[in-house]
Amino acid sequence: MSSYKRIMLAVDLTEESKAVADRATALVEASGAELHLVHVIEPLSLAYGGDVPMDLSSVQEQIQEQAKSHLSEFASQLKVPAEQQHLIFGRPESEIQRVADEVGADLIVVGSHGRHGLALLLGSTANGVLHGAMCDVLAVRVGIAD
Q1: How many domains are contained in the chain?
Q2: What are the backbone dihedrals phi and psi of residue 108, each rounded to the nearest 5 degrees, phi first?
Q3: Average pLDDT of the residues in 3-16
């Protein structure tokens, strides 16, 4: 088995991101790979289907500034330099794949809630990444009660 050279860690910046990051950093340490971080902000117009009859740009700017700050803080804990931090707007599944392709990642690490039933049929970010990625994907199970 060849070791990974460039690992893309996709985070949603929730408490669960730490568990996913722990798995990615263990792989980085074992392989000597370069670690990239990506956080995707879904535009409010996508989240609400464009049906909100108001200008959301100031709210979106606040969300972006807060995400930028949180991503920077999270990255500093992992010692990931600014040029390997990616804050992107769009649909998480496609943007994670796009950035992974752009940086030449050979592994994407993403959290998965292990949904069942209807939520599984509708898909999740992890499922979307898994089915569209051109490289290996590690879905780390999070948020499961013991």
Answers
A1: 1
A2: -110, 130
A3: 93
